[in-house]
Design a protein that fits this description.
76% of the residues lie in helices and 0% in strands. It is mainly alpha-helical. Helix 1 (7-31) runs parallel beside helix 4, helix 4 (74-103) crosses helix 5 and helix 4 runs antiparallel to helix 6 (133-166). This is Potassium channel family protein.
């Protein structure tokens, strides 16, 4: 089984993952002049690589789910859920930010991070809106992912817990 991170390590990993997207995106957009969509894809890829290297449990997700979903490891399950949601939020926020920077160079990453959280949780306050057809498509995709992700994760978890308790 993969090496377990300490609670401080898990918190540091999550903060690093969430805050790493801003300098990567700005560096690609400003210094190299990479187009917005390409900068978003490169940023997301680098964040995912960082997640896989730093948090090795993701590489063995099937074995980890079985170990995590016993009642003894409930905290680990919560961290996996937070990690998955965090990666989805950061990926979409980075994409929105890079596309928006093309139209508005003074755009704020935190505005799009907030928008991504609100969209993924399907709350939708309406104070920030997508600016073009591509972003409208991505918002629809993110809302759908947010709608189905949590039930899927908990259904898998409940199935594994019941399988573990009942032996089948």
């Amino acid at each position: 089984m993969a090496k377990k991170l300490s609670p401080k390590g898990e918190i540091m990993f999550l903060l690093t993952m969430f805050l790493f997207a801003i300098p990567i995106s700005d560096f690609l957009l400003g210094f190299f002049g990479v187009p917005g969509i390409l900068a978003a894809l490169i940023s997301i890829l680098l964040i995912l690589i960082l997640a896989l290297v730093f948090y090795q449990k993701i590489l063995m997700i099937d074995r980890v789910f079985i170990a995590i979903l016993s009642m003894r490891c409930l905290k680990e399950f919560v961290m996996i859920v937070v990690l998955v949601y965090g990666l989805v939020i950061v990926a979409f926020a980075t994409f929105y930010y890079c596309v928006d920077r093309f139209y508005y160079p003074t755009s704020s990453y935190f505005k799009w991070f907030y928008f991504s959280v609100i969209t993924l949780t399907t709350v939708g306050y309406g104070d920030v809106t997508p600016i073009n057809g591509l972003m409208q498509f991505l918002v629809s995709l993110e809302a759908f992912i947010g709608y189905i992700l949590l039930p899927i994760i908990f259904t898998i978890g409940l199935r594994l817990i019941l399988k573990d308790k009942n032996g089948y």
